[in-house]
Amino acid sequence: MLTAIMIVCFLLVKLAMPMSGSLNDRFAGAEGWCLNIDSPVVYLSKFSVPDGSERVHMRIWQEQAANPVRYSIVKRKGFGSPAYFASFTVADNYPRSGPAFEHSFADIPPGSGYEIEVYNYGGSLCYGQVNVDVCPHMDNDMD
Fold it and tell me: Which residues partner with 118 through β-bridges?
């Protein structure tokens, strides 16, 4: 049963991913995810926050979210337990055909090994994509 659910999740994410040249190029490079009752949490690819970075900005679309979905910036410690740096919860659907849900995190310490944890509070089937940008600090100093 778990294998069948994972195959359905894989197909939903792949079929819903934007095609190149589409109107949804804002999700080019986004990472897909799928959650269900057997897999209520997923960790996306690791990223780094270089010195001098101002914020981490996320663009999200999610569908079939009958329950809130939490997005967190984490680093995993020994035995894989996460250390949380920041979180927010999205309690609605943001289909790819509409505007993305956007959120920025400030004051994330410089370092490597950060991941986005996506957690489904209710365990129901939902899927989506996340695009993460680390924004450099912009100096406004005029010489």
Answer: 42, 71
Q: Specify whether the CB–CB gap between 101 and 17 falls below 8 A.
A: no
Distances in Å between the alpha carbon of 90 and those of 23, 141, 143? 23, 36, 43
Do residues 130 and 116 make contact, with C-beta atoms less than 8 angstroms apart? yes
Predicted structure pTM score: 0.76
Q: pLDDT for 60-113, tens place per residue?
A: 888 887 888 999 999 998 888 899 999 999 988 888 788 888 999 888 889 999
The secondary structure of residue 110, as a DSSP letter, is: S
Q: Are 82 and 117 in contact (CB under 8 A)?
A: yes
Phi/psi at 2 (nearest 5 deg)? Answer: -60, -40
Two tokens, residue 17: 């991913």
Q: pLDDT (tens digit, 9 = 90+) per residue, 17-49?
A: 443 334 345 455 678 888 888 888 999 989 999
CB 72 within 8 A of CB 44: no
- What percentage of the chain's residues is helix, strand, coil (to nearest 5)? 15, 45, 40
